[in-house]
Design brief:
With about 250 residues, the protein is of the alpha/beta class. The protein has five helices and twelve strands.
Amino acid sequence: MTRTADAALIEPLATGAELRVTGPLDGSPVLCLNGGTSTDRPGTWGASIRWIVRELAPEFPDRCFAEVRYRNRSWRRIESGVADAAAAAAVLADRTGRAPQVLGYSMGGAVGLILACRTPDIARFVGLAPWIPDQLDLAPLDGRRIDVIHGSLDGWLPLIPGVSVASSRRGVARAREAGADAHHTVIRGAIHAVAFDGPGDLLIPAPRAGRWRDLARNALAPRSDALRPRATPPGADARDAHRWAP
C-alpha cells in the first residue's frame, strides 16, 4: 500500500486495477465507482467521486470509503470495470466480513448495479447520475434499497456528455417492479458532474454540488427513511421524477 497526500491508502487489486481507501480499513465498507468514457482510456480517480468521498468521509468516521480506479474506463469495456469492482468488493469483504454498500457515479452506476445483481449480499446501491442500461435485468435486486440522485440539466446541455434523467427514471421504475425499495430524486439546476479536476490535487465543485453531497449523505445514512418525498414543482411532469430536491 501507498499513502496519498490526503492520507488515503492505495493498493493494487488482483485484476490490475487499484483501490483507494479513505477511513478505517476495518470500517463499514462503501465501494465507490467512477464514471467513464466511450473510448479506451486508462482509469483515473474521478473528480466527482473523489469530491463526494472527501466531503462524506469526515461525517462517517466508521466507514471505509473505497474508490476503484479501473484498468480501462471505457463503457464499451464495462465487464472489465465490473471485474475490477468485484475484485475490490472481495478485498473489502475479506477485510471487514461485510459486503459493501455501493456508491456509483455515471458509468459507475451500471458497474455497481451489475455487481449488485451478481452479489446478493450487497443490500444498498446509491447512484449519482447513474447509467442504468435498459437491457440490464434488474430482477435480482428484489428486496434491495436503491437510491438514485440526478441533476435536472443532465443530458440537456449541448456538446456535454451526460445521462438523461428519463433513463434513470426508467431504471428506478424497473427496479421497483422487480421488488426493490427504489427511489429517484432530481436536483434542480444540477448538471451531470458533481465536481471537476483543478490544478494539482484541487477539486472544483460543480453547481449544486452541496446538494449532491447532502442527498448522498442521507442515502448512505442508517435510516431507511432518510430521503423524504417532495412535491413536484409547478409545471414539472410528475412522471419525470419521483422526488424533487430544491
